[in-house]
TrEMBL record, chains A, B:
<protein>
    <recommendedName>
        <fullName>Glutamate decarboxylase 1</fullName>
        <ecNumber>4.1.1.15</ecNumber>
    </recommendedName>
</protein>
<comment type="function">
    <text>Catalyzes the synthesis of the inhibitory neurotransmitter gamma-aminobutyric acid (GABA) with pyridoxal 5'-phosphate as cofactor.</text>
</comment>
<dbReference type="GO" id="GO:0005737">
    <property type="term" value="C:cytoplasm"/>
</dbReference>
<dbReference type="GO" id="GO:0009449">
    <property type="term" value="P:gamma-aminobutyric acid biosynthetic process"/>
</dbReference>
<dbReference type="InterPro" id="IPR021115">
    <property type="entry name" value="Pyridoxal-P_BS"/>
</dbReference>
<keyword id="KW-0210">Decarboxylase</keyword>
<dbReference type="InterPro" id="IPR002129">
    <property type="entry name" value="PyrdxlP-dep_de-COase"/>
</dbReference>
<dbReference type="InterPro" id="IPR015421">
    <property type="entry name" value="PyrdxlP-dep_Trfase_major"/>
</dbReference>
<dbReference type="InterPro" id="IPR015424">
    <property type="entry name" value="PyrdxlP-dep_Trfase"/>
</dbReference>
<keyword id="KW-0456">Lyase</keyword>
<feature type="modified residue" description="N6-(pyridoxal phosphate)lysine">
    <location>
        <position position="434"/>
    </location>
</feature>
<keyword id="KW-0597">Phosphoprotein</keyword>
<keyword id="KW-0530">Neurotransmitter biosynthesis</keyword>
<dbReference type="GO" id="GO:0004351">
    <property type="term" value="F:glutamate decarboxylase activity"/>
</dbReference>
<keyword id="KW-0663">Pyridoxal phosphate</keyword>
<dbReference type="GO" id="GO:0030170">
    <property type="term" value="F:pyridoxal phosphate binding"/>
</dbReference>
<comment type="similarity">
    <text>Belongs to the group II decarboxylase family.</text>
</comment>
Length: 623, 623
């Protein structure tokens, strides 16, 4: 055949003209092994480079000197053979095989054809690369502002099946082609939480290094309970927790801690260990062994308050509801969680704490635990930790700082003063998956006293934590946890820390706070906007009402409140339908529904803030 | 330049001979856009195919007819231009841009150069593809039996830094090149839990579709608490839980449930909701509002028993220690968890349960909860659910079935009879991440009574669960959970179910149980092996001692027990040092250390079982 023949005429070529219609997901890339000898010279040069660099360069150089066609043809043929071997040997000597995407018909392939199936390696690689293409395209578009944040559909619409996207499970397997379609559809109908204009949650953004860390974590597919099966991750957790304790300010980073499945569980840990500290017998004898124990946190609200929203003006809600969940779950009872009054910015009033401690003691109850929130969910308020710590010391109570949202500010020299006194806490919750942009989930509970976490939770399960292992079993962390198996949440965070450095986190946090200051300054005097509280926010939370022109002249009163209460939900609904941006809203105590803007997304810029404001105005103008 | 010039002489080519030494991770693949016109003819043909198939085929056919060199050169030049446009238009019309790996110098790139950085798209794609190459190579090798299961190092060795692998975090960022090295090293010093010879845990194997699901999950990076930000995943969870309830046998799959971070938390949920069912006032008033509540489960052991191992022969341990952890955490106290006697196979003796219920009632205590284990951790025993259910009904107690490990057998028509009576349970824990091979973590708590999970845990946090949203808010699941944010554990499972079908899970489970029967039959009469209990195991757990020749003639007694106790740890240590395979061991009650073999790994074959046995013999022969 001529050197110029299209390789489609060669039977071995993946570039052959397909006789059957190409299925979706059929892909073509130059399949090097099927390139004709001479035409493939450069390709081989590339392969030679890629596989064994020094050898590759030599071959390439040699080839350049030999311009005789016949000679070249011979060399390339021989090189082709050698490289095939080299690829294998690369693998054996610890180098890596380059991956190549080839034309693969997934319509006739099933999960059973993938590894560990015989000859499953090639379909496995092609399938994974196909998935990666779907994911990289998703990522690319997520950062593109011309992409919608979401393509909203109601539950019944998705359940009925959107354009063939069938959520129902069946008895028989589907082809990998269908599985790839399912992957695309699952992303298509989801929400792009990494989009520069997604502001709906405390956790936003898509950190690429963190994402890579998650991909690796799931590939390693192991469990945190013992050093035996997660040696690297267990050590990373230990070192990272120590670093976090140093940043908190505990001497030499001493203490203990563990990563848990979210801030609510971290907070639950804090209540458990506080109880264990003062009443260790509860572990064996139950709550009956202790007197009536009292917990304190800033005020929390429930839906019933919302219903009474217009009549009950004294109710506020600041601290996270997880403290309440913990008090219910752990057997304290929510009535024994006493809610503390807060100032207009949502910060605990220390005098109120002391008064309520005294009151509880007078009733014969035993106050044991105070939660100070560093960064409340709605207002982003920081409780005055030092003043609360004084009271805790005075009355012998455990001080927990819930820094799930605000803990990240400890990384910023400019903003960490907002947590002044945190080093006096007995325990701290800190979620890197919120303000620090680590992918979900990543939450740490940090404890100042070493050993107490173990004492509180250990049950000494011999089948896991054999004392006669050949390594130092103090590294087995499982018995500290209330979980048995524990997901590896550390790697992505560790990798991000390596990649950004402490300074990188600091820059991210400072930037987010600068952006929220920009937003605050932009709307504080803007027509149609009203701040929920006065003064610059402490965190990135900016809480505001949008007042449509129809309400602007209206005197404050029941009618206006009722109508204003409906504005944010209506704008939000339109926002979701149009898919342009997303921001949260909620009522709070006597305040009717208002927007809570939060910024933790590294992709957000001033233009996105501008866009949000204009979008609210556009959507809300005629309400 | 001649058509035959090596493109390295062209300044635009990525195949140019590198003037600087190629850094690690520098990659070469044919960069199509830089191929010289004529030589690139075939490459262009491929591109034409890949992007727009019909057009591509036309062009390719046309090119084949035109063998004139000059003409070809002209066509290819024009094609190159057109295809560049086509690639863009592919993107715009909803198709995807093919990804291409190009030569990238990561030593000068940092996390800050990735998206959302300006011009960050290309480095982002190259970085992610590089990571994917690391991962696909890891996967490839994981399934290759010539690869070690692990490369063991002691904690102090890893902490000191292995060949430049430095776990310490620093203030300044590291280059992406170093980040990629860190990724490789993290995998290198870890444990290949997907290796066909990894039998150490109940969760083993690496399911490719499940893995793809996890990669997608982390890319979507969202949270399960509301439909608003996880519409697809929330519905998938709902449908999958319903399917699981149908398989359990609850009428029409009615009931409730949630995915939780592991079996221990799922079991904790079951205790919480049982308490709420009988004493809902505990939620608000604490345990003080209830009488002394009693929980039952099969016997559990603690390390202190191991120390007394030679003297105390009556102590056994069957059920999972999470029930004990829950009793401590939730304020019952471990003393109010009563351990039930089991038969020689580790199954609860129902008469003992009834006797202990009566005894507790006579003391004035209130028995409220029985945990029946379906597949104990060590023996793989299935408690007789129907007989336990009879007693629960008689005395008005909550029946929980902990099927974390054995629940998967419900998928097998051949083996599901081992859970007969499960449909009578009030709640069931079922971990797809164990027997069903779903990547970690994936655990469900399923509840027969609808609404009770919500009643038990809801705190109605208005900032999350606004009742005035535009969609049906009953789909917001967050308030059922004790967590706030909740990791998306459903997608990988849903995707695997789609890809395998119910029948695929059944085949997997049947195969694993067949393999364990093979192992059992192989060693039950083999010299040097002794079974821990007689008869075929109910689950894939095969428990046995290896008796080295030095102990074979020795009469049973203290000396032999002491020496035998040390055999399994020694063999395990050598196994880990040599890295060839991994299997667990532990003592149990009066039984000195024995091996517990479990099979949940889809990659395992009879040859791997043979290998394990021979490896134990090889390593233990001279002990």
């Amino acid at each position: 055949m001529s050197d110029w023949d299209c390789p489609s005429s060669s039977s071995s070529s993946s570039l052959s003209t397909p006789l059957h219609p190409p299925p979706p997901f059929k892909l073509l890339l130059l399949r090097i092994s099927s390139v004709s000898p001479i035409q493939g010279y450069d390709a081989w040069c590339g392969v030679a480079h890629g596989c064994t660099r020094k050898l590759g360069m030599k071959i390439c150089g040699f080839l350049q000197k030999n311009n005789n066609l016949e000679e070249r043809s011979r060399i390339v043929s021989s090189l082709k053979e050698r490289t095939a071997k080299t690829l294998l040997s690369c693998d054996n000597i610890g180098g890596d095989v380059r991956f190549r995407r080839t034309e693969t018909d997934f319509s006739n392939l099933f999960a059973r054809d993938l590894l560990p199936a015989k000859n499953g390696e090639e379909p496995t690689m092609q399938f994974l690369l196909e998935v990666v293409e779907i994911l990289t395209n998703y990522i690319r578009k997520t950062f593109d502002r011309s992409t919608k944040v979401l393509d909203f559909h109601h539950p019944h619409q998705l359940l009925e099946g959107m354009e063939g996207f069938n959520l129902e499970l069946s008895d028989q397997p589907e082809s990998l082609e269908q599985i790839l379609v399912d992957c695309r559809d699952s992303l298509k109908y989801g929400v792009r939480t990494g989009h520069p204009r997604f502001f709906n949650q405390l956790s936003t953004g898509l950190d690429i290094v963190g994402l890579a860390g998650e991909w690796l974590t799931s590939t390693a597919n192991t469990n945190m309970f013992t050093y035996e099966i997660a040696p690297v991750f267990v050590l990373m957790e230990q070192l990272t927790l120590k670093k976090m304790r140093e940043i908190i300010g505990w001497p030499d980073g001493e203490g203990d801690g563990i990563f848990s499945p979210g801030g609510a569980i971290s907070n639950m840990y804090s209540v458990m260990i506080a109880r264990y500290k003062f009443f260790p017998e509860v572990k064996t004898k139950g709550m009956a062994a202790a007197p009536r124990l009292i917990l304190f946190t800033s005020d929390t609200f429930t839906l019933s308050f919302i219903i009474n929203i217009a009549t009950d003006g004294r109710l506020f809600s600041q601290s996270h509801y997880s403290i309440k969940k913990a008090s219910a779950a752990l057997g304290f009872g929510t009535e024994n969680l006493i809610l503390l009054n807060t100032d207009e910015r949502g910060r605990v009033i220390p005098a109120d704490l002391e008064a309520k401690v005294i009151e509880a003691k007078q009733k014969g109850y035993v106050p044991i635990y105070v939660n100070a929130t560093a960064g409340t969910t709605v207002y982003g308020a920081f409780d005055p930790i030092n003043e609360i710590a004084d009271i805790c010391e005075k009355y012998g109570m455990w001080l927990h700082v819930d820094g799930a949202w605000g803990g990240g500010l400890l990384m910023s020299r400019k903003h960490r003063h907002k947590l002044n006194g945190v080093e006096r806490a007995n325990s701290v919750t800190w979620n890197p998956h919120k303000m620090m942009g680590v992918p979900l989930q990543c939450s740490a509970i940090l404890v100042r006293e070493r050993g107490i976490l173990q004492g509180c939770n250990s049950m000494c399960a011999g089948y896991l934590f054999q004392p006669d292992k050949q390594y130092d079993v103090t590294y087995d962390t499982g018995d500290k946890a209330i979980q048995c198996g524990r997901h590896v949440d550390i790697f992505k965070f560790w990798l991000m820390w390596k990649a950004k450095g402490t300074v990188g986190f600091e820059q991210h946090i400072d930037k987010c706070l600068d952006l929220s200051a920009y937003l605050y300054n932009k709307i504080k005097h803007r027509e149609g906007f009203e701040m929920v509280f006065n003064g610059e926010p402490q965190h990135t939370n900016v809480c505001f009402w949008y007042i449509p022109p129809s309400l602007r002249g209206m005197p404050d009163g029941e009618e206006r409140r009722k109508r204003l209460h409906k504005v944010a939900p209506k704008i939000k609904a339109m926002m979701m339908e149009s898919g342009t941006t997303m921001v949260g809203y909620q009522p709070q105590g006597d305040k009717v529904n208002f927007f809570r803007m939060v910024i933790s997304n590294a992709a957000a810029t001033r233009s996105d803030i501008d866009f949000l404001i204009e979008e609210i105005e556009r959507l809300g103008h005629d309400l």
